[in-house]
Every structure is written in structure tokens, then in C-alpha cells.
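pipeline stage [seq->struct] | target=Elongation factor G | organism=Candidatus Kentrum sp. MB | residues=683
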Amino acid sequence: MPNYTTSDIRNIALLGQGGAGKTTLMEALLCKAGVIPAPGDVTKGTSVCDFDPQEKTHQRSLYSALVSLDYNGKHINLIDTPGYPDFLGHTITILPAVETAVLVLDARVGLEMSGQRMMESAARAGRCRMVVINKIDAEETNLENVLQQVNDTFGSGCLSLNLPTGGGAGVVDCFFSAEDVETDFSSVAQAHTQVMEQIVEMDEELMERYLEEGDTLDPALLQDAFKKALREGHLVPVCFTAGQNDVGVSELLNLFAAVMPNPQEGNAIVLRKSKKEDAEEFSPDFDAKGNVLAHVFKVLIDPFVGKLGIFRIHQGTVTKDSQLFIGDGRKPFKVGHLFKLRGKEHMEVESGIPGDLCAVTKVEEVHFDAILHDSHDHDEVQPPVIDSPVPMFGLAIQAKTRGDEQKLSDTLHKLDTEDPSFLIEQNVATNETVIRGLGELHLRIMLERMKERYHVEVDTRPPRIAYRETITMSAEGHHRHKKQTGGAGQFGEVFLRVEPLPRGTGFEFVDAIVGGVIPQQFIPAVEKGVRQVLDAGAIAGYTVEDVKVTVHDGKYHPVDSKEIAFISAGKKAFLDAVSKAKPIVLEPIVNIDVTVPQENMGDIAGGISGKRGKISGTTALSNGMATVSGQVPLSELEMYQSELKSITGGAGMYTIVPSHYDPVPTQTQQQLMADFKPGQEEE
């Protein structure tokens, strides 16, 4: 067993916008705890958390990374996360693993929309929250304004547990001590009083004692009320640091160990007993002797040890000898080797207890969001619900080298395994492999990883739009297929009628032949020829739908009629009928919801209208944001991710859901028809 208990564990994630200094702060924390002799440097590629070769090249965090340290008798698991919006998926998906989410801000920049979104996601996930204002020793900072911005955005419960002093050269405690020391703004006494009053509001008895004793009330008596205030979002502690120069680092570690919640004190993790919509919810009980329940919140493919499944243990004890099932799998795997992680370092341990974060290796079946357990009673248990960002930006890809198709498929599977926000689609309608991510940078990094790690290169292009074709009126079609090449020939003649069907009906084939003018054995061949056109397109190369075809007349030859003849006759008779039935091309229309700062609403609404879209409504949100809703042709959204980023400075996001199909503009149809090059037909 480890030399700590569940009550000693602290699980904390560092969130924040790109450039806030999270990774540098993590280095300072590790150094202060004695884990590393000196802080690493992100710009030199020597940091513990940015160990991936791509991160060293780009000098930024691209993936989440775990470390653990022991400090003042507490075992602290820390997760560093990427800050750029394109990698938000790696940030949001680790929230079920922690009790506390710490938003790190650059004092020179203040709060940006990406940081606000992370904090809101943490609140929705029920995580306790904290704000660290970093780089306080930098020039041209206004720390009081940044604190006010945090208050204005997240509420008056954002209160300082320490304050900067000496122009950002140090910090002074405002919680455990009310001693009046000079600060760069505000005062220790004022900050102490504000925090104490905020906490005692959670407990009537404490409130009475505080009214009697005032600021002399021992903060140690406030532990339970403090953590209750954290759980309910009534208190969001704010601290000040300069991680690069070791300012406020010891103080931050002390707060992590002394007042931040352990797994039993944070808001309970909620699991569901099955996949059913009305499935009963429950929270694990942290019983170390109970059945194992663990949740895989991250999967990593290490070039040396293979696949790592990184999980939080909710109940039970995991040992090297544990036999664990994955979800509803019938065959368990033996843990064999159990690890704690510190960046790329894997430290083998004998066991893991409730609340701890551990990893297993070389279990191919393990996957993101898997539930690990040792009892079939838990086969159907479902993981916590996460509001993961939806990947919208897409590229169609194909292997650059012939013969690499299987290698590409295997590589895509590995990338998909590691990144919950990376999506692979096989678009049957356009015969394309499409990858989707959270933005252009996200996919660029994935393609770079594909090339450098797995040695697979691809050609990319925007995904084709899955247009469709249909008809708008009834018409007759006819074709006689006759071919004589010496000896037995080919003969088949078909008369058919096409009629439009209601949108979404599909295809209907009717055999109305009487008198055997086309023998029954050749009717399937006629239908096969028609279906070839349905699949390949009649006028622009897209699937034909919502058409009724009635075969009502024809001729055959007792010697020359063959299946191939009636396939060709049916195909060309159908093409003949479609050409007379006023065919049109349909384009997919999507419902779109764009969430942006309220000051950008006008630009967004105007942009949608300019894309042949229709605005259906706007909704003002409580956080200074607004959602613009409408419908727009999918073809108009090819570069929308970049446009939105340009308009909002990265503060906007959007989701789309397929709605229906509408006719394309005449000019677009003419261009699509002109671009269509059907295969040469046999005569």
C-alpha cells in the first residue's frame, strides 16, 4: 500500500489560456517539492510536462501531462493542460480526474475568453475552482484590475488568499494571518475579513462565533466550511505567483496541501448504472476494500512501452495482481505493472487506492472513457458526462504513397485513441476519409504527428459536400440496347416512368410489366441499371434520391437478350427520363449555433446572412456571451472556423447539426454539372 491515504490525496488540474505560464509554474512546484533539482525550461525543451517531441519543437503544451509529488504529508497529483483553444479537448476531458481546477492567468493579459470557457466547464463539471494570477513581477501589470476582472466575470466569491508585495517580488498571506503587512494594493486586513465572512456564511454556528470573536477566530476551525464553500462555488480562492522567479510558489503548495479538498471532500463523481437514458446515477464510496471501479480519463501511446491507460480509482484497491474487466468485456486483463506518472517517467507502484491517479500499460483493449472494474455487477456502468467540444474543422485525406492505405488506417486509429476531440469519418456519399478537429492548428499538429512519429504522409483537401440529386416532375424514359459483334449479340429495350417522391422518402422501384414483354428474370437487371445511376449520379455525380421508377414496357430477343443488355437499357432509360424530369441538385442545410461575445453578435448574424443563411434567433447568456442560431448551407462553412477565430480573437465557438436538403442556386448547379465527367458508356 502507498504511504498515504485517500484523505492525503489532492488532485488538481492547471488550466488557462496559452502563454499563462502553467508549465513553468508546474516546474517551480516540482522543484519546490524536491522532485527535481532545478526547474526545466519550456523554451529549451527541458520541462517535465512538455516531454513530447512536438511540444519541444513548438514550445507549447499540446497534450495534458501528469505529475505527482509529496509535500507536507500530502500526495498531490497535478495535471498540466494545453491552453490554446484548438487543444481544448485535452483540457476538458481530464476534469473528471480532479477535485480542483486552477485557472492560471498571465497578469499582463488578464482573463481571456478561452480561460473563461475552461472555468465554466470546470463549474459545470462540479469541480472546485481556484484562480492563480501568474507573472506578477512582470512590467506593465495592473494586478488590481486583473482581480477586478476575475470578480466581474466569476462573481464576488473570487477572494484573495494572499496579496502581492514589493512590486511583485513576494506575496503575503491573507487567510491564516491578519497581520498588517504592506501590499501592492488593498490590505491584508481587508482581504482576510472578506474571506472569513465569505466562509462563515456556510455555517450558522461559525457565523455566530465570528460575530463574537471577529478576525481573531482561528482559520483552522473553518476547514469544513471552507471546503463546503469551494464545493458550492461560493468561494473561488485567488492567489498570486511568478513561477519563473519562485514568487508565491511555496505559498501555493502550502494552500494545495492545507486547504484544497481531498477526493472525499470534493463534489462527488457521478456515474450511471447503464446506458439507458433513465439509468440510475450513483457515486462511488471510496471503500478501499470494495470492488474496484476506475475511470480511464486519458490514453497515451508511448513509443517505448506502447499504450498507457491512465485512470482515476473511485473505489477498491488496484494491485499488480488485480484482474480487471473493461466495460462489458467478458475477459479480464491482469494489471501486471501499475504506474504513477511524472511527465514521461513511469514509476512502478505496488497498489493504487481510491482517489489516486494511476496507469497500466500494454492493454490494447483499454480506451478513453472506459470503466475498469472487477465485478460483473459493474459491466454496464457509464463514465461521468463531459461537455467535450465538438470537432468541426475537417479535411479529406488520402495516403500520398500507393500501398499505404492500411498503414494510414492504423495510424488514424492510434491518433483517435489518444485524442478524444479527433474524429475520423468515412463519408460513403463522397467516398472520402475525413478527419475532424477543433481547428486548423489542431489538424496541422495531428498531420505532423502522423508524419514524424508514424512516417505516413497524406494529401489533404477540403471535404467534398455530399450534394444529392432529385427530380421535380414526372417523365418517360426509353432506351434500346442493341449490340452485334458476330455470333450472339446483346438486346434489351426498356420503357420506364419516373416520378418525384416526398423529400426523404428514398427510392421506389415498381415492376408494371404485363404480358412478359420483359421476362421476369431480367427485371432485376433493369433495377440494377437504375441503381447504378442512383449511386453514381445522373447530372452532377451525386446520389439520386426521392424517385419512383415504374418499368411498364419493353422488348426482348429470345437469343440475344442477356442480363448485361437489360442493365444497360435500364440505366440509360433512367438517365433519359431524369433528363426530362427537370432534375435539380440538393445541398445539405445545417442548423448552426454560434456562441460569441455579445459585442460580436452583429458581425456573426451578418456573416450568416451573407452565406445564404437564415437567422432563427439570438440568446443572451449570463457571462457576456450570446448565441446566434440559424440555418446555413454546409458548403458555405468550409473556412468558418478560421473566420470565427478572426472575428472573435478565438473567443467564439460553433456547433452544427444536419437539418435538411434544399435546391442549390442555379449558378451552382450549372457549375456542378459542368464539372461532372461521367464514365464512358459502352455502346
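stage status: PASS
auto-comment: The domain at 271-378 is CATH 2.40.30.10 (Elongation Factor Tu (Ef-tu); domain 3). The mean pLDDT is 93.
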